[in-house]
Amino acid sequence: MPDARAPRLEVQGLTRAFGGRPVVDGVSFSVAPGQVTCLLGPSGCGKSTTLRMIAGVERLEAGTVRIDGVAMAGPGLHLPPEKRGVGLMFQDFALFPHLTVAGNVAFGLGGDKAARARRVDELLERVNLTGFGPKHPHQLSGGEQQRVALARALAPRPGVMLMDEPFSGLDNRLRDGIRDVTLDILKEEGAGVVLVTHEPDEAMRMADEIALMRGGRIVQKGAPYNVYNAPVDKAAAAFFSDVNVIRGMSRGALTETAFGAFLTPGHADGAAVEIVIRPQHLKIDFDRGGRGPLPTPQDGMAARGEVVRARYLGRESLVEFRMDFDGSRLTASVPGVFLPGPGTAFWLMIRRDKCFVFGAGKPA
Ligand SMILES: Nc1ncnc2c1ncn2[C@@H]1O[C@H](COP(=O)(O)OP(=O)(O)OP(=O)(O)O)[C@@H](O)[C@H]1O
Ligand SMILES: [Mg+2]
């Protein structure tokens, strides 16, 4: 019995180049039993290549992959995928069309016939497909096929599940339900899961830990709450939502802006800084017929802007402002319906506890 706390998967310094261009560059992380780690990042940042090296379908140039403490790949070592005890689920998960649902799920199973049948029944029940065993894949909906694929990948009880955008072929309504079912089953089975996605919402929903990737590297790793609320740089903040940026210059650890002074400790005198704020953290106050906003010392000074346009998105409304102080555009999101007409004046404030301060000139 493996130690319940020992990582199921340990990846150290994973590196791979194509045509002399590094695509995965020193990626390290580990995944505990029942933990879901999401590799999240923009298209081309190396997520799938990382997963393929862990699976063993791609060779690594440097680094090591260990599963349940056993080296699978490293200098002079490359175990083939079928020897690694990993379950794979990709976007084009292609069930075997000539096999029944039961045949698909049993495909990778050893043992006697009765034990195989028991495992197949158990898994079909878990994915809510009891009785579907004799059907063929073409008789199933996309969501049902997806759940068969999940059952098939889980059947041999892999220690590590590798999933590459497995839900992207499903429509939105199906997706949420299947994500939750998948997550429940993976946790029960105690597999370590690596889920690749380029969708921040999916990562926030699924992950215990998000590894945010950019240009072949992990730029930030942490619980969804931490990655969202303490981004390492502007691009990390902007990956999860639109952001507003207010530029200024730090002097004596303070940066003066139209919204008042911001504490900017750690930035040298004369250094350009960017104050980054998500749309839901801009506060809006009314103009009161030209008399301006009510004073709110905790939110600094208010700056005046006029509505450029307002859009209703269902759960929230997005309002774009042109600011009087420099003509720049800022976007605020407001819960529910808030659709002021173009040209309406408002006063905006910035919640000090919700803004991020970065040195300007970091990679965008
Ligand atoms: N076999 C290959 N030969 C050459 N270049 C490759 C190969 N596989 C991947 N690449 C390149 O490596 C980079 C990273 O690819 P990868 O598939 O890992 O990205 P990704 O993060 O999964 O992106 P996406 O979100 O679009 O799936 C891309 O620029 C891609 O073109
Ligand atoms: Mg990919």
From TrEMBL:
Any one of the GO CC terms: ATP-binding cassette (ABC) transporter complex
ABC transporter domain ranges (all copies): 9-240
Keyword Translocase in annotation: yes
Biological processes annotated in GO: quaternary ammonium group transport
Record key words, sorted: ATP-binding, Cell inner membrane, Cell membrane, Ion transport, Iron, Iron transport, Membrane, Nucleotide-binding, Translocase, Transport
GO molecular function: ABC-type ferric iron transporter activity; ATP binding; ATP hydrolysis activity
Protein name as annotated: Fe3+/spermidine/putrescine ABC transporter ATP-binding protein
Protein source organism: Fuscovulum blasticum DSM 2131
